[in-house]
Design goal:
This protein has about 475 residues and is α/β, with parallel strands linked by helices. About 30% of the residues lie in helices and about 20% in strands. The longest helix has 16 residues. The relative contact order is 0.19.
Length: about 475
């Protein structure tokens, strides 16, 4: 099973400190995209979606001082400091910077795999995703070095939580994965990457329970966490072994596959979803285990939607961002799926209902894009689409924004610093030209993205990657 096909942080101990980025740190490759770098900024007459799930608040003022939110409240009650740069934003909405928990820095179509050190960071930031967890790497050192460059201010991009290489079992195609067959191999690989500076590790579809247990124990000993795109190990089995998170919602869970053999992945696993009752005893047992063990789940509906016929047409802005060759590869795949060669819509709608039922059961749901599959879910754009799909799944817009912001911060262990618009937190904020509280699709109208109080021009960042997706 390939990750490129359809079938395919609370740290242990204290959370790692976040690197603060100040305007003076920003180099010549970043500066052209900066529109706001004053030490004190006031955003006035804005609608605020604060990320907590509370209703949107109208006509608010947000004061930013030295990279943090100094005050937020109704216009006229919050004092605008003398000398502040004032941005009058009537009609705009401000949300917290989104936190993408399955946001690779590589990209795939059915014909290509590209490590996108140039385009991925820019497009995530442009889309309002100010923090990412990469959740599986084909080139971990590229990600470590990109993270260092972003933190140093030499390239534009989001805050990065880097995941090591995929950990899987023997058998199959392992061109970009690490095989761990024994306890000793599992411990050696995890210890090595922990020393190299990754913050998470990710299991893949062929891993065994024994190797998973050894890797989890070793990772926790080094203060890193582990998640998985599973199949050979079911969710309930992984929870019992001590895993910290699980990826892709229902669509990687073999709990309900009666044909699966121990430590093996059944290629027909998805058939088990056709008759699943998300409110029934089997699904609820999974949820109870996850909730009682504090295991979060990541929604990546945006990448799976690509394999369902009769879904919305490709976005023009995404096609414009692709190189001509990449665009042709994606559209050829899209056309085949549109003819009925894809995932049954019943499975997709059940996957949506599964995520809603998980949250109703008390589960902690985050979100991301997973820019793989057939190439239609782009960095950042796909995160925005996943937000829309959460609303289609039955979440209210305020619930969806909480999943995209504060929930992600909780999963990464940084909710005291990020994830909501509250005084004292870092000023990661997204200015949207519209009202996504009423029409969540207006999340696509990002104008300015603040990270650590520095405002970036979304349109310029998007323009800089036009025609580059699939090349670099």
């Amino acid at each position: 099973m390939s990750r490129f096909t359809l079938l395919g942080l609370v740290l242990v101990g204290a959370a790692a400190p976040l690197t603060a980025q100040r305007p003076a740190m920003l180099g010549p490759e970043v500066r052209p995209f900066v529109t706001v770098d004053a030490p004190v900024v006031a955003l006035t007459h804005v609608r605020v979606i604060d990320g907590t799930g509370a209703p949107a608040a109208e006509d608010q003022t947000i004061v930013i001082r030295d990279g943090r939110i100094a005050a937020v409240g109704p216009f006229g009650r919050v004092t605008v400091p003398a000398g502040a740069k004032v941005l009058e934003l009537t009609g705009r909405t401000v949300i917290p910077g989104m936190i993408g928990l399955h946001d690779h820095t590589f990209y795939t179509t059915p014909q290509r795999t590209v490590q996108s050190n140039f385009s991925a960071p820019r497009l995530y930031l442009a889309s309002g995703v100010t923090t990412i967890r990469t959740t599986g790497a084909i080139s971990p050192y590229s990600e470590i070095n990109v993270r260092r460059s972003i933190d140093a201010g030499t390239v534009p991009g989001p805050r990065m939580y880097v995941t090591g290489p995929y950990l899987t079992g023997p058998g199959g195609d392992h061109a970009e994965e690490t095989v761990i067959s024994t306890d000793a191999e599992a411990r050696r690989v995890v210890a090595y990457w922990a020393e190299e500076g990754v913050q998470w590790m990710k299991f893949y579809t062929g891993v065994s329970r024994a190797a998973m247990k050894a890797a989890i124990d070793e990772g926790h000993r080094h203060g890193i966490k582990l998640t998985g795109h599973l199949c050979s190990v079911s969710y309930r089995e992984a929870v019992a072994l001590g895993i910290d998170a699980l990826e892709h919602g229902l669509l990687a869970n073999s709990d309900y596959d009666k044909a699966r053999k121990p430590d093996q992945c059944d290629p027909a696993m998805m058939n088990s979803f056709m008759t699943l009752d998300v409110e029934g005893p089997e699904a609820q047992a999974t949820f109870r285990d996850m909730v009682s063990h504090h295991v979060s789940m990541t929604s990546t509906l945006a990448v799976f939607e690509l394999f369902v016929p009769d879904r919305p047409a490709p976005e023009q802005r995404a096609l414009d961002a692709m190189s001509p060759e990449t665009r042709s590869e994606y559209l050829a795949s899209h056309d085949q799926i549109a003819k009925g060669n894809g995932m049954p819509s019943k499975i997709f709608t059940t996957a949506m209902a599964y995520e809603r039922a998980f949250v109703r059961a008390g589960g902690l749901l985050g979100f991301g894009v997973d820019p793989t599959g057939n190439g239609g879910a782009l960095f950042g754009f796909g995160d925005q689409r996943n937000l829309e799909l959460l609303v289609e799944a039955g979440f209210t817009p305020m619930e969806a924004f909480r999943i995209a912001t504060l929930n992600g911060a909780k999963i990464l262990g940084i909710a005291d610093q990020l994830g909501s618009i509250e005084a004292g937190k870092r000023a990661d904020l997204v200015v949207v030209a519209g009202n996504p509280a009423a029409n969540v699709g207006e999340i696509r109208k990002v104008e300015t993205v603040f990270k650590d109080g520095v405002g970036y021009d979304s349109a310029k960042l998007i323009e800089s990657v036009k025609g580059q997706i699939g090349i670099r």
